[in-house]
Design brief:
Length: 301
């Protein structure tokens, strides 16, 4: 499924780029090497996620995912020279984490069989947006469609050997023998490939315009919102306390977005005031007679 999605995405974007419908960067070895590491980070993220879900319940994995926000924030500050979070933003992040912890304690609790893989997934989830942000900054002339093309192409090339090692290439034949390879199933696969291309593009477009920390917060808020929808649609309904904790976490994510907006506006206002003050000083200096060069004594004599 993953190979079909990333492979078809690369083919679709290559074809649209060649036809001129979309502006997709041409393939070069140097750029491919750059996105190779981003694809490796993505592979590690998927692998540790799968192992973490084998070692703990979903709720515990979600909590460790939310805890990774603080690690991403530190890496954002140290490696990407992002602005340090203000007190309002830090409190908002704490609301996200405490809401997730409260949800788990109010519902199923923590069930962890192997802490190692859960910890590895949390670290990988913290590092992945930083790695992707560094790749974006290393070539800021690329388009979002071009980044999507390279990322899916390199992911396909890295995962392709694993398909033969794990014997996944026999899956299609097995599905055909069982009568599961129907027109409807193939149609759904094609639709998922097109949908996956859009999601991949929006992910890069989002990371171009927000920090790695904000991107991580958005991902965690998405997971929380998914839990809310699941509790409303399916037979398993979380308790009132658990739903309250989910709402608390989502409010924290919204407050974080507002805090970052205010912080950005304050920094922009400070820069404008400094620029205005500097322009005023230059204007006063040019109009001040004492600032003009005075004739020397030798020339006056």
């Amino acid at each position: 499924m993953l190979l079909a999605q990333v492979g078809s995405s690369a083919i679709i974007l290559w074809a649209l780029g060649k036809s001129g419908i979309l502006k997709v960067d041409a393939f070069t070895i140097a750029t491919a090497k750059l996105f190779f590491w981003n694809a490796v980070a993505f592979m590690i993220l998927l692998f540790t996620n799968a192992k973490a879900l084998e070692s703990a319940n979903v709720e515990a994995v979600i909590v460790f995912r939310t805890l990774s926000i603080f690690v991403t924030a530190y890496g954002d500050f140290r490696l990407l020279q992002a602005q340090a979070l203000n007190t309002e933003a830090i409190i908002s992040l704490c609301m996200v984490v405490f809401g997730a912890i409260g949800y788990v304690l109010s519902d199923k609790g923590f069930i962890i069989k192997n802490m190692f893989w859960v910890f590895c997934y949390g670290c990988t989830n913290a590092a992945y947006p930083i790695v992707t942000k560094m790749v974006i900054r290393s070539n800021d002339t690329m388009t979002s469609w071009g980044r999507t093309y390279y990322n899916n192409l390199m992911t396909f090339m890295i995962f392709l050997p694993g398909m033969f090692v794990l014997g996944e290439h026999n899956t299609v034949a097995d599905l055909d023998e069982k009568g599961l390879l129907t027109v409807s199933s193939v149609t759904l696969l094609i639709m998922s490939c097109i949908w996956g291309t859009g999601i991949s593009f929006l992910g890069f477009l989002c990371l171009e315009n927000v920090s790695a920390t904000t991107f991580n917060v958005m991902g965690n808020a998405n997971k929380m919102l998914t839990l809310v929808i699941n509790s409303l649609l399916w037979s398993h309904h979380a308790s009132i306390e658990a739903n309250f904790c989910l709402a608390f976490s989502l409010v924290g994510a919204a407050c974080y977005g507002e805090a970052k907006r205010r912080q950005g506006n304050a920094e922009a206002k400070a820069r404008n005031e400094n620029a205005t003050s500097l322009n005023d000083l230059e204007a006063r200096g040019s109009s001040d007679p004492e600032a003009r060069p005075q004739p020397s004594l030798s020339s006056s004599s």
